[in-house]
Amino acid sequence: MHSAIVTPEGDRIRWVELPGADAPRVYLHGLGSTSPAYFAASAVHPLLAGRRSLLLDMLGHGHSDRPETFPYTLEAHADAVAEAMTAAGAEGAEVIAHSMGGAVAIVLAARHPRLVSRLVLVDANLDPQPPTPGTAGSSGLASYTEEEFLAGGWAEVRDRVGAHWWSTMRLAGRTALYRSAVNLAAGTTPTMRELLLELRIPRGFLLPEQDGPLAGAEALEAAGVAVVAVPDCGHNIMLDNPEGFARATAGVLAREAV
């Protein structure tokens, strides 16, 4: 287990590192998840293996620290990841990022361009979402006040998301989980989609084929973003269809910049 201090208060981000050629890849998990659990099999898949790979847990999640005073905005997450990548000597990395991690990765690439050479977004959040009571994702968590969530709303979320997601969500700090969800639902200004359109590195967006066409796909593709529908999977593409995920990711990583 590797770690780096990423806040003035001494909070640490931790990651599992797989050895390989020193052209790094960084994997970022989604809300209430952890990168080793979601990406370990993909990082050693024959189509993706052989590269130095950092399976990194963002603050508040997995093996990383859970500071109560951290704001958990997308920008704050991105800056903390940037500190960890810099400490690890992982500049110019290919970043593969799922769901909320994809939103953080977009902000990371926009704010710290020296750190990101290629970007693969795995069913990532591109647009703000209004709070929606009774749903399982970030918009559902954001429908609570922080006081409501900490007082017992977290248990309602636990019962709603199911055992699989809760198995990693329970590792997250409850304050971290709530604030991350609220800030993910609120998005950024400019939006994550707008930031993504302006990037000039090879980029791809993977989505489940069953979800149908991605909103705004034509504009993304016109800006050089490869939009790839992966069959036989849900939101957790890398877990549901490991082979399809590896093929789609390897294809995006082989693209040249526009």
Q: Can I get a quick summary?
A:
This protein has 258 residues and is of the alpha/beta class. Helices cover 41% and strands 20% of the residues.
Walk me through the structure:
The structure is a single chain. With 258 residues, the protein is an alpha/beta fold. Helices cover 41% and strands 20% of the residues. Strands 1-2-4-3-5-6-7-8 form an eight-stranded mixed sheet, sandwiched between helices. It has one domain (2-128, 187-253): 3-Layer(aba) Sandwich (Rossmann fold), CATH 3.40.50. The chain contains eleven helices and eight strands. The chain has helices spanning 35-43, 74-88, 100-111, 138-141, 146-161, 163-169, 174-186, 192-198, 217-222, 237-240, 242-253, and strands spanning 2-5, 12-18, 21-28, 51-57, 93-98, 116-122, 203-208, 225-230. The mean pLDDT is 96.
Main beta-sheet annotation: 8 strands, mixed
Percent strand: 15-25%
Count of β-strands: 8
User: Helix share of residues?
Assistant: 40-55%
InterPro entries: AB_hydrolase_1, AB_hydrolase_fold, AB_hydrolase_sf
Keywords: Hydrolase
Organism: Streptomyces katrae
Protein name: Alpha/beta hydrolase
